[in-house]
Amino acid sequence: MRLLTFDLFHQLTFFPSWFPVNSYLVEDEEALTLIDCALPFSSRGIVQAAEQLGKPITRIVLTHPHSDHVGALDVVKQKFRDAAVIVSRRDARLLAGKTDLDPDEPQMPIRGGIPKGVKTIPDQLVQDGDTIGSLQVVSCPGHTPGHMALFDKRSGALFAGDAFQTRAGIAVSGQIRPLFPFPALATWNKKAACVSARKLSQLKPRYLAVGHGNVLEYPEQAMARALTQAEQKLGMMDHA
């Protein structure tokens, strides 16, 4: 595991050299918020990082419930029993392994690693505009129907889950980077992902922290470039 520290948050990367999967610990004065739970074996590294920082994890927030973002959830929740587990209202069904779609949603199959046998039941369901401590919930469907990002106004950090990737070059969810195609292959709706990426870019973050790849500082131009490429491929430029 690789641990990198930024302004009020820490990036935990598992398999950093060949298949990077990230979790984040966001600091408050007396506690930590964990964003995403990586892979099943990641629980040890997450717990060790919290112990190293000397603060308990009091919130566990999931950007979306794909298996590489919820793998260590059950074990971490057992370790920090008082931690509130938080997911979007829409993706709570996906966390429970249910892949049904609402009638008003594009009827495309939900892709990616659908969790199986997760025992943890969310304590709180959130939606666009809600706040979780210092974090603002930003709904950004596309990768999954209920995908969400978290924006920390204190540091300007945008925790974007798989709405973007930075591994093998920055890309909007659904746009394949041949050296690391996995987030794109796991994307439910490319056009929705593109609309969401534009919404996120308008936040003008100081940091872009994603599920796969390095944290980008001052990412505005890189996000705009990735968004333009995605819109061109999808024929969306007239609607941008």
Would you kindly provide a written description of the structure presented here, covering whatever features stand out?
With 240 residues, this protein is α/β, with parallel strands linked by helices. The chain has one domain: Ribonuclease Z/Hydroxyacylglutathione hydrolase-like (Metallo-beta-lactamase, Chain A, 4-Layer Sandwich), CATH 3.60.15.10. The protein has helices at 43-53, 67-70, 73-79, 92-95, 182-185, 190-201, 220-234, and strands at residues 2-5, 9-14, 21-27, 32-35, 57-61, 84-88, 124-126, 131-132, 135-139, 148-152, 157-161, 164-165, 171-172, 207-210, 216-217. A 7-stranded mixed sheet has the order 1-2-3-4-5-6-7, covered by helices on one side. Strands 8-9-10-11-14-15 form a 6-stranded mixed sheet, with no helix packed on it. Strand 3 and strand 4 (32-35) form a beta hairpin. Helix 6 packs antiparallel against helix 7. The protein is globular, with a radius of gyration of 16 Å. Residues 20-212 form the Metallo-beta-lactamase domain. This is MBL fold metallo-hydrolase. InterPro entries: Metallo-B-lactamas, NDM-1-like, RibonucZ/Hydroxyglut_hydro. It comes from Sporolactobacillus sp. Y61. Pfam families: Lactamase_B.
CATH level 1 name: Alpha Beta
Query: Reading side by side through the largest sheet, how are the strands ordered?
Result: 1-2-3-4-5-6-7
The CATH homologous superfamily is named Ribonuclease Z/Hydroxyacylglutathione hydrolase-like
- Give the end-to-end Cα distance, rounded to a whole number of Å: 39 Å
**Helix count, per DSSP?**
7
- Overall 3D geometry? globular
Q: Helix coverage percent of residues?
A: 10-25%
Structural class: alpha/beta
How large a portion of the residues is in β-strands, by DSSP E? 25-35%
Average pLDDT level: 96
Number of domains: 1
- Ranges where pLDDT stays below 50 over 5 or more residues in a row are none
Query: What Rg do the Cα atoms give?
Result: 16 Å
CATH topology title: Metallo-beta-lactamase, Chain A
SSE arrangement, N to C: EEEEHEHHEHEEEEEEEHHEEH
CATH architecture verdict:
4-Layer Sandwich
Instruction: Specify the biggest β-sheet.
Output: 7 strands, mixed
What's the total number of strands?
15
Protein name: MBL fold metallo-hydrolase
InterPro entries: Metallo-B-lactamas (IPR001279), NDM-1-like (IPR050855), RibonucZ/Hydroxyglut_hydro (IPR036866)
Organism: Sporolactobacillus sp. Y61
Pfam family, one: Lactamase_B
